[in-house]
Write a structure and sequence with these properties.
This protein has helices at 6-17, 21-40, 86-91; strands spanning 45-47, 51-58, 61-64, 71-74, 77-84. With 94 residues, it is α+β, with helices and mostly antiparallel strands.
Length: 94
Amino acid sequence: MNVNTKAGIANELRAKTGMTVPASFDVYDALGRIFSDAIRGGEEINLFGLARIKVIERKARAGRNPRTGEPVQVPAKRALKITVLQPGKEALGQ
């Protein structure tokens, strides 16, 4: 099973559902657009039985340049937080 590429995921979709190759690529592309739109809107994405993805706001903070040791200001930013749910942990044997 190769799920590290778009083609690999599309082929797994095709194999598991019986859909055509072009249809599996369409589903893959549609999911990407759905997830991107949700993230842009600040919505939480629940991949039931696997993980939850949500946008968090990180505050500005003081940091340090690791090369020179000089203090620097790290700006505020939005980031993604991924939480693995219990069924996903069980799949890992945890």
